[in-house]
Batch of 4 targets.
Target 1
Amino acid sequence: MTRWVKGGILENRFEADRVAQALKEATIPFLIKTFEDTAYDGLYVLQKGWGMVLVPDHFQEEAEKIVAEVKKTFKEEGRDEMEESG
């Protein structure tokens, strides 16, 4: 039986889409669990992030590396856009 573990925290839907694409390309099975909750109007998003990616435990290390790389790229692109507009 495969145990699913946290592969990383996602800050927003756009980051989640990019992580999903990267994990698909790496043929890593995954689930994305959002922390959005309509009953609490997204209260937990501020505390926990937008969501998390879950992967089978034997893919955890590889998934964490992919999530970190996507986050790094995502932040660099945001910085570039701010410099161009400012």
Target 2
Amino acid sequence: MPYEPVIGLEVHAQLLTKSKMFCSCRADYAGSPPNTLVCPVCLGMPGVLPVINAQAVEFGVMTALALNCTVQQINVFARKSYFYPDLPKNYQISQYDLPLSRDGWLMAETKNGAVRVGIRRVHLEEDTAKLTHVEAGGETYSLIDFNRSGMPLMEIVSEPDMHSVDEVNGYITKLRTILRYLGVSSGDMEKGAMRFEANISLRPAGSTTLGNRVEVKNLNSFRAVLRAVEYEINRQAAILDAGGKIEQETMGWDDLHNVTVTQRGKEEAHDYRYFPEPDLPPLELKPEWVDAIRRRLPELPDAKRQRFMSDFGLSAYDAGLLVVERDIATYFEQCVNNRPQRAKVIANWIVGEMFRLMNESGQEIGQVKITPAALNELIDLIEAKTISTTIAKDVFAEMFASGKKPADIVAARGLTQISDASAIEAAIAKAIAANPQAVADYRGGKETAIRFLVGQVMKETKGRANPGLVNQLLIEKLKL
């Protein structure tokens, strides 16, 4: 029987504030010795009083507005009770009934076009401590680090509007891009700054009735999310095809064996015994304060992509690649500054050679040594026919590795393009003499043979010959 997956995601993003959510401890705990950035508040000592981090609230509002949510004027923090070693006070301060915002959406890019995914709510909470499970000397034990405890965490809960792995990929990619554009979260999954939980169920194709859902936790990378969703879809389909029933439960993702594993029965909201946090008053967000934040929002990726297409004539594909990271979009605009007619050429260099070299080297755009001015100088050399496009790629690679200016590289390596007809004719004579079959093919009507001969001339001149002039002179010689 064909099934339709129904998928919703809960995304937790650590916020880039200087201090934790409810205390003044430093939030940049990465690399610090365990249990050194702590205080009685984030250690959950009895009698301590939390204080709301104003910057975290502002970041939450920014995100809610960027995701088209309605920001609630009155919202309330609540105690979410559960018992686990990484939660010393046995409850987490979170939001539920009256969250920061509700009812938003974003457009997820997929292979079949954009898909609208609803956002149920964006709310704030505190992070838990971090457990590390160790096996040594035949013993298994756990270590706990409270540096992460109390970190400001934003939870973004989607509606169950996704129906394929491709849609999930489009959603999490766009969401991470938006968070990074806003500057509210690094989205650095390797450091645990963005974590996912997926709720997955199946229903017969064409049905509107939701099946029992399974929540999958421990998803700390895009790869893990996509593989876990795909695995769970296949697992549930096999159970249903065999006449079985899907149990509503919480499962973990075993990244080593690429399987989901049962953890516990799925909790409902009432299991957490939510009630208003007595130590924090209701948080009132004045409409004029929210409007001021709205006016300060940066240009977001969808709007920037449309502008790149309309202002610079870029294709949707190229514009989409350029806006995935805000720093790349900024680099592109710095290159195009006052040269809109060159935008397409610049885009080709960035999404082509630069992306290739960045992928090979593992560098981010901020680490690239080629300045916008240097890239334009390279294009100037091509347009002036000082170097060929082929030579320019070699020059670009050296610029990427060394940061040297293109003119200096061209001069040092003697790469100036040969446009002297007599020098090119000498190379053409050698190519014709060495390749009689290609000459015969061309003269016999196989016009594509000219490409091979052009390539031989370029090889003879080590790529320095003017390709247009080579093509012109070759045709003239072959007609004789």
Target 3
Amino acid sequence: MKIRIEKLVTGGQGLGVLPDGRKVFVWNALPGELVDVELIREKRSFADGVAVNIIEASSDRVEPKEKTYLSTSPWQMLSEEAEEKHKLSILREQFEREHLDLTVLPQKIVTDLKTYEYRNKVEFGFIEKDDVLHLAVTGRRSHEKVSVEGSMLARPELNRAADEVLGLLRQLAIPLDYLSHLTLRCSQDGSTVGCLTVSAPRFQELPLPPSLQGIQVIFVNGFGRKHQTKVLQTLGDPVLTDTLLGVSLRYSATSFFQVNVPLYEQVLENIKKLVKSKEVVELYAGVGSIGLTVGAKNITLVDIDRFNTVYAKENLRRSAAKGEVVTSSSEKALDYIASDKSLVVDPPRAGLSPQVISRVMDVKPAQIIYLSCDPATLARDLAKLTRLYKIQSVTAYNFFPRTPHIETLVVLERV
């Protein structure tokens, strides 16, 4: 059916209205365009779709570089100038929705102008076509996997390593149903490591591919609380090292660590200038990359993932700071939030939990530094926090060019 697109929304889709009045969220569609839409999911109050034919194109539309761009980087069809405009617009819309102060919003997004080959981490699934194993990602039109030949957003080292691992798996004739996914990561000097997640408790011994410094084969069994992992093989050295603001940090292919390191270092420089206390509590800390680089003397690093906290403890020992690392969910580590310490949070897309917000409102830390990857949950949390806090600054970073994702740094101070 033909749909006129009104605007781009937080998830990256174009918003239109179906003939029956329901909203429809459309991939591959830009504001002002008239498109033919194929519906891929229908609910009582809305639908999701993909534009399969552009009848009237926007002047902001450009030719995407990849055939599979909708699955890998869905804003490749949007000009770089328009990308910044729409990201700022989406951030503003979320602030408006929560009745937040709009005067604090930035007029520009911080970028290093590198729009491709910036990611230091990629993850691929697998698929068979004509009985040949291929790398794959999940398609937009369905949950079926789409064959890819790497990613143009990834650093070249990662695509080379992916090709080598794929060739090795083909050579060894590893069955598809033994394989889950491949995660690859590289440091700033190009050293590359990987993690091959498999669904078989026994797995054929692999040689170390030439382009990899190290790789682990990990068996994963179950989901949720029954989720179990077992390292089946470790080849070479699967640990990377990067230096951020003069601090040496170690991490693995699967650690929580930012994927656009040059821009991330700019974030850390900004936080270092803004943080007021020499005592810092960091929730969702990953390997401790914020707390350990911003000049704090005493640090508490909290993360739920024991693999993250193994590296966080090592990084803390190797740093000049003192403190402790806590392996816990943030909801079970509320006592570490204190009124005399700066609180740093870098939560997942779901944002802060009600328990964390409640604790903050009770204890009232003098300063909160909030790094967010989702403007909708950020605005929701700020609407609660600004009952007691004033927003001092908002900075937007284009960590993920050619995608809808926005990274936003907010500094709040107690009123």
Target 4
Amino acid sequence: MATYTLADNPIDYLKKILRRKGQFVTRAIFWKIPHNTRTEEDIQLKIGRYISPDGFAEEPEIKDPKSELTLDDEEFKNLLLFISENYEPFKQGVKKFIPLDGKFEKDDIDHLRALFSIPDKQSLLSFITSNQILSDDLMNSLQHQKKTNAVKRFEEMLTEELVENEWQKWFKENDWVLCSEFVKVLEERDIDTENIADYLMQAYDGFLDIIEIKRPSKDNDFWAKSEDHNNPIPSTALIKAITQASKYIHEVEKQSDSLSFLKRVSGTRTIKPRCIVIFGRSNDWTDKQKETFRILNSSYHNLTILTYDHVLHRAKRVLGITDNPID
């Protein structure tokens, strides 16, 4: 970087010839201007097109330029931002570029809403991907943001006293938090005339599993208030939930040869079903309670117990928005 002296003040310059064509030369110069009152330096940009029949002069100033523009520090930074945000889409063709600012007309917004409101979501997705309307990075980012918003809502719900239906709705819309082994939530919930599970799930191997949730509330404490020989013991409410889940597993196994049941669950096979019970909170557990929980879960071969905090931390780990271990 060359340093020139003007009016006894040192100013750094960095210059670059952008183009030579005939007798014209286009040149860009960075100006670094120090300040006596603060440590920051302003960066200015001068772009000029000069008549240079005898070659390009090396002085920082050229007399009588054909055209010249100097941007101050704020203008230069805004120019960089403008270029970084808009150059690539603009290069694709101005008619394909939609500016995300006040100039984006309401009719354009309504048109986009109509496009993305098509009821046949699978056809819409095929249309978007086959025509490369959205890049893979953008689609992945949108999916990640949707899941992140869902997790934020989950945390808010934990501070509210909600009915069980609200939790059932959230889990149905966000079944990805339950287990990567699950493919989809089945529309059918009835096992028989007396047993209705919260969710019947189809696992990746085509078999049926069960999800049972009990809303987090003061009446659904995970541990009993008293211990047995200094060991935490499950609360009565948790024991009831485990018993109910075990009954569901048993009833599903009884239906394994029922053609009517197989039809209702879209042919999903029902051999050795497993169940996940989501119950209570664990955000304030002691180390002893965490150890006992581990032992309790290991005692079941076809049933897994999770707390709402386990689900929350699992979701955050999947999304990469926390490094904290699961409580």
